[in-house]
Specification:
single chain; alpha+beta; Cytochrome Bc1 Complex, Chain A, domain 1; 4 domains; 6-stranded mixed beta sheet; 17% strand; globular; Peptidase_M16_C; zinc; Peptidase_M16; protease; hydrolase
Length: 933
Amino acid sequence: MIICLLLIASCASKSHETTENDFKINYTKFTLENGLEVILHEDHSDPIVAVATMMHVGSNRETLGKTGFAHFFEHMSFNDSENVPVGANRKMIPEWGGSRNGGTSNDYTVYYEVVPKDAFEKILWIDSDRFGYMINTVTKAALEREKQVVKNEKRQRVDNAAYGYTEEIKRQYLYREGHPYNWTVIGALPDLQAATVEDVKSFYAKYYGASNASLVIAGDIDIEETKKLVKKWFGEIPRGPQVEEMPPMPVALSETKSLYFEDGFAKLPELRMTYPTVENYNKDKYALQILGQLLSESKNAPLYKVIVEEEKLAPNVSSYQYSSELAGEFVFVVRANDSIDLDTVKAAIDKGLNRFESEGVNEKDLKRIKAELETNLYRDMSTVLNKAFQLVEDNEFKGDPSYITQTAKLMEAVTTQDIMIVYNKYIKDKNYVMTSVVPQGQLNLAVAEANEAKVWLEEVKQEVANEEVSQGAEAVYKKTPSKYDRSEPEFGQLPLFKSPIVWTSSLNNGLEIYGIENNEVPLIQFDLTIPGGHLLDPKDKSGVANLLSDMMMEGTANKTPAGLEEAIGLLGANIYTYSTNEDFHITGSCLAKNFKETMTLVNEIILEPRWDEKEFDRLKQAQATNIKGREANPNVIASMVYNKLLYGEEHILSIPSSGTQETTKDITLKDLRKYYQNLSPQQAKFHIAGAISKNKAKEVLGSLENWSAEAATIPEFQVPENPKANLLYFIDFPGAKQSVIQIGKLALNRTHDFANKLNFANEILGGGSSGKLFQTLRIEKGYTYGAYSEISESKTIAPFTIRTSVRANATLKSLEIIQNMVTNYAEAFSDKDVELTKNKILKGNTRAYESLGAQLRMLQNISKYNLPTSFMEDNQKELIAMSLDDYKNAINMFLDEKGMIYVVVGDKDTQFEEIKKFGKEIVELDIYGNTIN
């Protein structure tokens, strides 16, 4: 078992003295002859290994005209390499039961995986081959295909998203032309389209040498054996040229710059103010981070009190410090209520800052924030992958893998004086960049005298010849010589999942308790689940449970909203309430030493709600704002309409659990009080995972014995026979660069005899990046950034759903591919697929319950669906016993394509005539799911 409070072991180049009580991560560091710095962290708590490789190159190494290249190269790196089969990087790792991905920032590119222990050497083989042996395999066909994938990513995250261009606008005006942060990480589509194979090879030669990287391996490893394997697999990678270090490049603005932008997707006005500050690891960063929390992140915060409580301009306000390698930013963000003038918001921010200047820093607030930061340190380091990320970043950018020890000390040392110093130095009377993003046609809401911001907008064209891509032929090249056999290594010994020990108990009032003791970190996570949720909402007032969950955190009979928040924060704890379709939850986390005090507050929240009219009015306004805001998200629109069609008008699940404009407008505090009577311990379940024994947990939870109420009768709703099947429903989203597609049908509930079988059968079709949907629509065709399928889990009958967002001019072709794939899925399912499914799921289970959060979800499944504590082992036995006929039967029973509905949210002007060629009857709907005649 790993314990975070360990002395740092075998550490090279210690830059700071540490003591026994410091927060630390133990590690061993060494450097290969080629300059690659390697950090190893041993953790035997689970039979898994995490690997993270960080290249010291991000978008800050690019030049104008070639923006987005670091991110594009990350994508290219996953395609092919000399000693690994084509497509294996994306496909094989999930098939081994692992997960993998990469990420690019302003400053770095990171590649990472988590795999079962038996695949450890295999991941070193794949990782090292991608790192040192991929460049000869790059072809023009692979380049063109990956361009489409990255362009789809930009369309999905930027072009098709409300406020998606805000970052681009801010960077243009905050960082002068030529500054490495003047452009976004994803870059410009014209730059991407112009990229050549020569550009890829040049970039690799310049930045992908071993001396420009750090490698971290964390998990169930042997240090000495791992050193030998690393030298074998990574030791021959070329050192590469010396990459010149970039010094900090802070910016100073000679004047404040105010910009406006009409956003065709946004439904609410948003104001952002960005001040230039300091780079990462600068000593001022820590005070600025705490300043951000002090200004807005609590009910005592001056910006919150002015903007949210007093002037009721927005449901919330955010302020935060963001530091990168070369520079930093302090940001204020307010997404205002519908039709609010942003001049009013700007004036309110000024008023809040003036109040902060006059009142100064509240010592109790500072103490609360530091307590929360202590808990967050442990929470953030509770998985091997998170520890790998921390070690690799601090090594690459600070030269000290253990710098988190100093980070903890520097945050703890921040004083009220430090906070006022950075406020006066970087915020007070300083220039900034301000963006007013307003809905189309509502320029009157923008800050007065703002200048129009210009961004490049892609035009949707149905026929674009160079967007038809394919895998193409493999590259012809001479393989790089090696003194080692670089063919695929064998698996190690298979580590089967072994369930953690689950203990159970109960209280006299009927509350059942499920627990797992886990002493890896001194943390506890807990969840109280009360059956009902949205199912107990009055249908014509859907959203009551959701609103009550917000209301219960707004103080108690003895504590104001600010007082409750402060009491929780001073413990370094986190408590929140939320409602789902079928349950109401009170959940949270805390340091183990503070569990008793935390549960005292939970008890108070349950038994002594405040019922504050003023807070109710504020929350109801926030609910209305959020409902309006979701109209800007095509994915949310697709999901809401999809559920409405599947469940039918009479079923409560046809309405979002947060409600609609119609169902929420007449909700009163009386409705919340009435729903509160449904919260009973008689059918409730308390789940707890962490550093606490059964006896101690039960002793503390005895405080809940005072809670008593009769359990509510949960209504049953009839599900329609689905007369709307085999139709295509189209919703116009003008100007959409992508079409959101959801396809599916109601299938079964979690307690159905075939629930596991259908989940297993879905794995080949849509289970992650190795699934046929992803492999075809993204890898082969370049139509999308991702495509997946799943069966939702609930006691109510739940749908099987296929989800993807495809580039607009590939909508018809994507629909045809999916239809053909589903229609032929049972017939095409093979004995090879059976074995692949078994391997993928069995090995994936080894990392399924590593974190406390995952263990909590395991307990929730056991209690909700009345599963034995050995259900994971039982599921494995069921999987191993399944024959090919079992898979085919499950597919034929539940995945009949003719019984499915198709929902498409896209641009009508360019796509409506196209999808008529699909051959299904089309019904046009508005964004609320109403038929358009």
